[in-house]
Write a structure and sequence with these properties.
The chain has 206 residues and is of the alpha+beta class. It is built from six helices and eleven strands. It is globular and about 45 Å long.
């Protein structure tokens, strides 16, 4: 095996760990990025963090659709919400009156479900109130209204149709500081990687 071929195989291996379109790579903590050709306007230019994934289906939160509604108004009936002026996110098109939160910290919060590294999903009122009261720092807590949901086999079929890029989950992406530009940055990364792999495997090259 020559050096060029070894380098190409190494590139493919690294690429597979970064992003793919294979249904078998779906899992909790993975990040889904819609392709430019995705036909559903409800998911156009969306970046979704999978927070639940099992045989019954999948649930995710859009992490790049930040609203103008502050947490203090969206959750005004909860203790601790008044100190949070940062906005809530639109987690998806399903049940926009449903509230979820992602908490980030070294210790698992009470009532939290592990998603990715130090990031945990909160779904219960008591867990929300404790998280809201613990800190007003937006880098440690994000609130979402609504979610993205798929029944058994639905997300896998969409992946087979090439509607999603599946990225390895990273905490910095889940709490990205510039959500409005996250989709464009990730789609450019995915397309640049695809173009590089095509160039490396053009006929006649060794």
């Amino acid at each position: 095996m020559n050096a060029r071929l070894c380098a190409a195989l190494l590139t493919v291996t690294c690429a597979a760990s970064a992003q793919s379109k294979r249904p078998e790579d779906l899992a909790i903590g993975k990040i889904l990025v819609t392709t430019r050709s995705a036909g559903d306007p409800l998911f156009a230019k969306s970046v979704v963090l999978l927070v639940r994934y099992d045989q019954s289906g999948a649930l995710g939160l859009m992490i790049n659709h930040r609203s103008a509604l502050p947490i203090s108004r969206a959750l005004k009936d909860l203790d601790g919400a008044a100190s949070h002026s940062d906005p809530v996110f639109v987690g998806g098109p399903v049940e926009l009156d449903t509230v979820f939160a992602l908490a980030r910290g070294r210790r698992k919060p009470e009532g939290g479900d592990e998603v990715l590294g130090d990031i945990y999903l909160l779904t219960e009122k008591s867990a929300f109130q404790k998280a809201l009261g613990a800190s007003s720092d937006p880098s440690g807590l994000r609130v979402y209204l609504g979610y993205c949901g798929w029944t058994r086999g639905q997300l896998e079929n969409e992946a087979r149709l090439g509607l999603w890029y599946i990225f390895t989950g990273r905490e910095d992406l889940a709490f990205d500081e510039q959500p409005p530009t996250l989709w464009s940055r990730l789609i450019e990364e995915a397309e640049a990687l695809k173009a590089d792999l095509v160039d490396r495997h053009k006929p006649g090259e060794r």
